[in-house]
Amino acid sequence: MRPVLRAALGLVFLTLPRAGAAEPGPPPVGEAAATPAPAAAVETVAVPAPVSEPGPIQLVRTLQLLQDRIAQGSVAAQASQGPLIARIEAAMLRAEPGTWVDRRHVHAAVTFALGGGGPGILRRLAASDPLPEPEAALVRGALAYIEGREGDAGHALRDVDARALPPGLSGSIALTQAALAAKADAARSIALLDCVRLLAPGTLLEESALRREVFVVGQVGDVRKLEALAILYLRRFPHSIYAGNFRQRLAFLLTKLDLGRDEAHFAILARILDELAPESRRTLYLLVARTAIQEGRTVAGLRAADRARALSAPATADAARADLYRGAAEVVSLPTIDDGLARLRPLNRAILPAADRALLNAALATAAQIRRDPGGERPDVAARPMPGAAREDPARPAGPPDPLILQARAAIGRIDAIVQGERP
Hints:
The protein has helices at about 5-15, 55-70, 75-95, 105-115, 120-125, 135-145, 150-155, 170-180, 185-200, 205-220, 225-235, 245-255, 265-275, 280-295, 300-310, 315-330, 335-345, 355-370, 380, 405-415. It is mostly helical. The chain is elongated and about 80 Å long.
């Protein structure tokens, strides 16, 4: 851990009294909460206790330093974030009313709340003496956003020019405005996320903006920019605490966009996944192949299965999965049905998870149906989801987790644990 961060954390932990857990704020709009990381001890250093308690600006800067370490993959920093937020909130709520006369402290409070601090301090400020503009709008908008009142938040922040705000706050406000615009005005959301990346390079704000922008760009179908942004994220933040979730969602997005439908588009998918280590790349190709089969996109399923097979050791579960997905794609077409059956019948069911055994049964049943009536259902069966294969929706999981998804998460976790250079 960097010396400046150790000193800053030591300062806060020595000067702030212990407090209960912070009131959790809602996750950012359209984004699932990250999987909690294993608890880890926070490194601290003994420093002389200052005469007075640090002010809001110092406290928020300490939190930002910690969060920037999270963007670089520090599990210890993530474990420290909750206790630190609770203590900063307690310190802000104890602050004398005169503290908030200085608009810089109000800016710090807004930045803190949007950075995971929750609504407590903003509720206090909103209920106190009227604030001048634009601080009043910032407090109202940030509070409404955290409380899930998107309409009120959008109205309050609509005319705020984030670029005119002080550093730190500017990125937080632009990121909030981008989240509010994502559904109704994707172009504005993309422009704001580009702005965040310019305002806060190398920070958790940039990591979050880049991660979200990939999916907004995917929403509008701009595959060229999606490719550039996805590669940029995987290069700049490969060890972020949120990278595992990003990779899994990216695999679903690439399948939804049907990037395997022809060689040119599949090359885009391959260039993105080539940024990953072989183990993680293999797992995501399997995920793309299985999702493509479920969506009835057999061409994409064939290509992704072949890539996964090439990355799999012989006689392994991953090799069997790759053969299963390729065979399932082949049996829905009369010219390749025999090849598909030759691939599916010898598979060792014992090494396949239950969901894939069900997919194998469905593929064999489909082949039998086509054999019985080759002129009937065949023309459109390839465009329909495989019978018996449940669709996956990463945003709305239903039932027990799919074993392949669990394997993907585990593999991604192992890859994220390999960090180049220092790691707490």
